[in-house]
Amino acid sequence: MERTLIADTVKKVGEKVKIAGSVHVVRAHGKIAFADITDRSGVLQVVGGDDLVELKPQYFVEIEGTVNARPPQMANDKIKTGSVELSAEKVTILSKSDEMPFDMGAEVLNLELPTLLDYRTLTLRHPKIKGIFEVQSAIVEGFRKFAGELGCTEIFIPTISASATEGGAEVFEVDYYGHKAFMTQSPQLYKQMLVPVFERVFTIAKAYRAEPSVTTRHLSEVTQMDCELGFVDFDGLMDALEFVATGILSHVEEKQGNVLEDYDIPKLKLPAKIPRLTMREAQKIILKRTGVDHTKEKDLDPEDEKEISKWALEEKESDLVTITHFPTKKRSFYTMPDPDDPEFSLSYDLLFRGLEILSGSQRVNDYGKLVDAIKERGMDPKNFEMYLQSFKYGMPQEGGFSFGLERITMKLLNLSNVREASLFPRDMERVDFRFSR
Amino acid sequence: MERTLIADTVKKVGEKVKIAGSVHVVRAHGKIAFADITDRSGVLQVVGGDDLVELKPQYFVEIEGTVNARPPQMANDKIKTGSVELSAEKVTILSKSDEMPFDMGAEVLNLELPTLLDYRTLTLRHPKIKGIFEVQSAIVEGFRKFAGELGCTEIFIPTISASATEGGAEVFEVDYYGHKAFMTQSPQLYKQMLVPVFERVFTIAKAYRAEPSVTTRHLSEVTQMDCELGFVDFDGLMDALEFVATGILSHVEEKQGNVLEDYDIPKLKLPAKIPRLTMREAQKIILKRTGVDHTKEKDLDPEDEKEISKWALEEKESDLVTITHFPTKKRSFYTMPDPDDPEFSLSYDLLFRGLEILSGSQRVNDYGKLVDAIKERGMDPKNFEMYLQSFKYGMPQEGGFSFGLERITMKLLNLSNVREASLFPRDMERVDFRFSR
Asked: Which residues form the Aminoacyl-transfer RNA synthetases class-II family profile domain (chains A, B) (predicted)?
């Protein structure tokens, strides 16, 4: 008998079918037992006798039986197959499992983070945790869709680099055939080099930061979603990033709305016009709203980000707010200073519900100015030779932006730690297992 | 004036427009000059006077002017805009370029590989080389489309690992906060761990091999396109891989047929039924066709792969042929031995026009057998603890496959070296620039 996907059983009432999946929970009531079986399409209640009682969570099984309509008062409208159940006639165990170290049948796995990660291959199977990565997959799908609509070509760029991408010490060193090499800190320089080739590019790329600190919002290995666009001015860049950001969020709400509901996430507020503020304007609003005077600070701190997002929601009915004109010295060397006030730069961050999920800028596209900017930061242009080559042979006005995949996932589902938003998170304490074990 | 994309000029005959792009070539004929201007949408002939003569290849420019129909005898039906030209009225140079080190206007850049790579940011701008990566982008798009149709969820997996993925010495070591870590040799183990979570997964992932040799078909950093499917038997796995492979190739022919033509690539031959041979059957066919007796060999060598692809084309009108049942000892530890003849395995390679572009197998999904297989290879199960955890908690029958992105790109365009199929190739001699310089 051919396998039937669980989602298709609702169309087969009265028919014999074979399903295959994993056992989520088993409940025995005297001689009768119920098992929830999960496959990639959904979850189904199976009714049976001793055959089912034998089953334990995470066993993989094939079950043949008849699809029956449930009596209306027994229907479960929370799941797609809630109107039917399978009456088991033949149960085949394909693969057994060790005893569960915790209750996988609980609606929420209330585990401390270290346990959640120590048992990562198991905790990921929990429906609520699995939902995080269904949302993540939809975020990336949305990114590609809207970056594609901007006319970007997808590029694949290297992660092994001859020098530290943007300077700084937070870089992983690789023994590369006896030579010193580094894991790229971002796809930044390579995507810029490709603007003269494709004009507009996007990439989904790994980035590595040897952050020697443990925070709730940093990982050592992250996934970035980057765009870089030629012949676009500062306003055009903001239009583009807001188009993609709004697109991503709407796409997730459309495709994975059930997971968002499961996480009690309010409906998204994405107005046609995303509010834009300079950093200085944002600081003034914060002063007015809270009395806290950060108007001399060189950046927004996490509390500022939360407050200005609150303002955007209350005053502009927007979950997004774009902050521009960060101090030139606080941004990377390739950031274009504002010609009207070079102390500040043509840069932006996008805040989503209080967290920065995107960063970017218009870039310095003049070879000489770029060499000067590198030197001013105390770096050696020789370490940027391939990058500089692309400016020597012509580079139009250009800029771009970069989304942090794990960050958006974290914020969208209101997770308390970015580690929960990575299938197998890497930080200074852990590569799958903790080093200290 | 708003910018008009070059491809849209054909709809604006008689109108004033502004275009922006890079100068491909300039040809001066006395007082009149022609420049080919390129943007992301295409290339356009611009006619003008002194303003154009000033321009040099790889200058980035804005040009305002009037779109005119070309006289029919002057039309160029090789390009989309061949029926029109732009009569320049105002030329603005946005960015200048150094003198070209070679003729970027030539139809083919006849450069030695080292030069091609030393000037990578420039050579990529050549239309014929750029085409390679337009094809590559379409390959990945096709992969995602057809992996998606199989019901796979996209996953993002780590590239930093605590141990060498599949054993062997060809692994890059990373200094990870003072601990020893490695760049993953493939996404293999992680995608398997996620089968009990999502049942079917796909990933586009980086893989690293510290190959201490220089060949025309190996890179140190590659992009893999992987699928892994639960509840699928050996025949089902081959159906799936042939579905995806055929889908990718057809997608490229549909989307980038002009690049294939530019590379003189014959039309693809993709029959509904891709021929399948065991390795032993393939060796017998080779013996019969060529007299070369490799029937005792444990693998197909490159010449064998070419010969059996020739057979597939001549006898089955197919550019693809699936070879199965490689010796168990020649494949990785997770490969399922054939229960009917355990010396051979439930493994497969897919050959495309003489080159292996995919490899995979049904997997050992029993915890005890997997531990034994690891030990038999002289490896320590402790180094596979997270991987083995997923088998302890239940794993259905499963298997998968992996395409090499650069390899397919190389073979599809008949490039002589896989380095030409990577934007910024990494090998033992080079990270952007050669180490020996």
From this structure: 133-425
